[in-house]
Design brief:
The structure is a single chain. It is built from eight helices and 15 strands. The radius of gyration is 19 Å and the shape is globular. The strands form three sheets. It has a seven-stranded antiparallel β-sheet with strand order 3-11-8-13-6-5-4, covered by helices on one side.
Length: 369
């Protein structure tokens, strides 16, 4: 804590980068300076939610507890930042994990593997990977499955990594279940009418990180950016409008939701490190719970077969999945006429955000945590 505090006090040239490197180190064992919302204190305060904006029935349909049972927190100095520790009903996180691994990477959605593999090779990543994952042992010498090589997937308006823009001509239908979940969370945080128009899914392993960036490509910054995390834990850094401002470090655990809105919508942020979940189990205990047999009428949550969940659980033993959802356009707004017309974009450049120590590669999911 003393080392991190000293780096925070220094300020000056790129204070964010110094703390990013500090937490990125594999041998950093003293994490007392990292905010833990499961035991809040210090600069953490309780946030008020709009309980009446989401009916209990709609919360259940999205796989969430009634909003009246959620806990929500803010951080002093970060107006518009909301942290909601795991509000999911037992078993419901499993649905989103399966969707991120089995359904959402399917065409017509776009993933990093499309940049260097023939289209026919990326049609069914799940089908090509499930047996290999199920049999996978602990040896690092085993070849990685295609799912383990997945780094990002884009949904809805597909982000162009080359131009850093969205465009009207590169759009596919946004998943209806994820849109419904996002609308309920946004409404609970005071943003009724939120439209889930674009999503970036990030797939992390223990050697992954997300570099320092701001999510500013959306044309409407008045709407929040929503972040959902599943699997292993991470350290998230939230800074200011300039990189010279030292960030605050916080843990994100499985099921946690983070909302960046208002003055916090355009702040620098990063994920320097992915950590084993604090329980020390292969996967967090909140993922051990199966769905109840009776789901509410109209639920977007689907049961997973035991076979499918075995594959997901094996993947999550060394991985973390993050979904970030954003509204790109305000109501009635259109893309400018000079908006990017190059659909898929080019391969991420060398100054990209997603870094892997083990292979020296960098991928570019321009997204919150």
């Amino acid at each position: 804590m003393a080392a991190a505090a000293a780096l925070t006090r220094e300020g000056g040239e790129d204070a964010f980068r110094r703390l990013f490197r500090f937490y990125r180190q594999r041998d950093v064992s003293d994490l007392r300076g990292v905010v833990d919302f499961s035991a809040p204190g210090g600069q953490v305060f309780r946030s008020q939610l709009s309980i009446s904006s989401v009916s209990d029935q709609d919360a259940y349909r999205a796989g969430l507890q009634p909003v009246s049972q959620w806990k929500a927190y803010g951080l002093n100095g970060y107006p518009g930042f909301i942290f909601i520790p795991n509000p999911f009903l037992p078993g419901c996180q499993r649905h989103w994990v399966k969707q991120c691994l089995k359904l959402y990477p399917q065409k017509p959605n776009v993933c990093n593997l499309d940049l260097h593999m023939a289209p026919e090779k990326t049609i069914d990543l799940w089908g090509q990977s499930k047996e290999q994952l199920r049999r996978k042992g602990s040896s690092k010498r085993e070849p990685r499955s295609l799912l383990e090589k997945l780094r990002w997937v884009t949904l809805g308006y597909h982000y162009n990594w080359d131009t850093k823009k969205y465009s009207a001509n590169h759009h596919t239908p946004f998943p209806s279940d994820l849109a419904f979940l996002s609308e309920q969370v946004a409404a609970a945080c005071g943003f009724r009418g939120f439209q889930a128009q674009a999503g970036i899914l990030n797939y992390y392993h223990f050697d992954s990180s997300l570099g320092i960036h701001v999510d500013e490509s959306e044309l409407d910054h008045s709407r929040p950016l929503l972040s959902f995390s599943f699997g292993q834990s991470s350290i998230f850094l939230l800074g200011g409008r300039k990189r010279e401002e030292a960030p605050t470090a916080m843990f994100m655990h499985s099921g946690d939701i983070m909302v960046m809105s208002g003055l916090s919508r355009l702040l620098y942020h990063a994920v320097p490190r992915v950590l084993p979940n604090p329980e020390g189990t292969a996967v967090p205990s909140c993922l051990d719970q199966a769905l109840p047999s009776d789901l509410p009428v109209g639920s977007v949550i689907e049961h997973s077969s035991d076979e499918d969940w075995q594959v997901c659980a094996k993947y999550l033993q060394s991985s973390r999945i993050n979904m970030t959802i954003r509204q790109v356009l305000a109501e009635g707004q259109k893309f400018p006429e000079d908006s990017d017309t190059n659909g898929k974009g080019q391969a991420p450049s060398e100054d990209s955000h997603h870094e892997e120590n083990s292979r020296g590669k960098r991928h570019k999911p321009n997204t919150v945590s």
